[in-house]
Amino acid sequence: MEDHTRTIVEALESEIPRLEADTKLPSESELMARFGATRHAVRKALGQLEAQFIVRRVKGSGTFVNGRFDYVLSSRVAPSLHETFARVGGVMRTFVLDASTQPVPADVAHRMAPVVGTHNLRLIRLGYLDDELVNYSDVWVSPKVLPEGDVRLRAYESLTELLRAGGAAPVRRWTRVVPDLTPTAMLEHLPIDNPVPAWRMESYVDDGDTGEPLMFSHGWMRQDRVTISVEYENATVDRGTCCATSDSVHNNSRGD
């Protein structure tokens, strides 16, 4: 059985790179017939490929070649979900689950610089990449730059566009990426029962012209659908955590 599993994995690993993303693979029964294997061996092989994000299995539909989009964190790329994924052929749509004015907690105040307890606009958003949920974010936005954000968000999906429309020049100054699992709040909107591997991202954005704090975000991005590339010269990696900062001299990116 182990030999069959290994044979199936090796065969599909060599064949899948020649297939386009979302191509449907043969059914379990067809793979059993092709390799003379048991259903258990086939399922074990597909499970190994899924764990490597090579394939994705959809209950009731089958197994498909998994396509992953590259999300680039760079001083040369505007820090915008919509713009970054558009560059690699993806269409990002974001929807606000909740928008409310709340006291800023200590961890956000540390980056945003207001006094703890100052009221900022808090947004809970879902991000769909090519109509599939890949992102959940908790964003704090300064009321100085977005005093009527809850109203204006109805006209803008991208926070980058919204801030630019208000006269700001958003620049990502600091970011951290940590391997994690999808949060419970995101699972409520996914057709799965258990958490899946995700990238947990934290970012601080200010105005490139004035230095005024604009927003701080906590976000989760599914690892099976998105890869993260960090291209900052001063990025550091410690125990799987990547942290990058930029300064006003070297970073001219403007975005989400």
From TrEMBL:
GO terms for molecular function: DNA binding; DNA-binding transcription factor activity. Signal peptide: none annotated. The keyword DNA-binding applies. It comes from the Bacteria. Keywords: DNA-binding, Transcription, Transcription regulation. Transmembrane segments: none annotated. Residues 2-68 form the HTH gntR-type domain. GO terms for biological process: negative regulation of DNA-templated transcription. The keyword DNA damage does not apply. CDD domains: WHTH_GntR. This is GntR family transcriptional regulator.
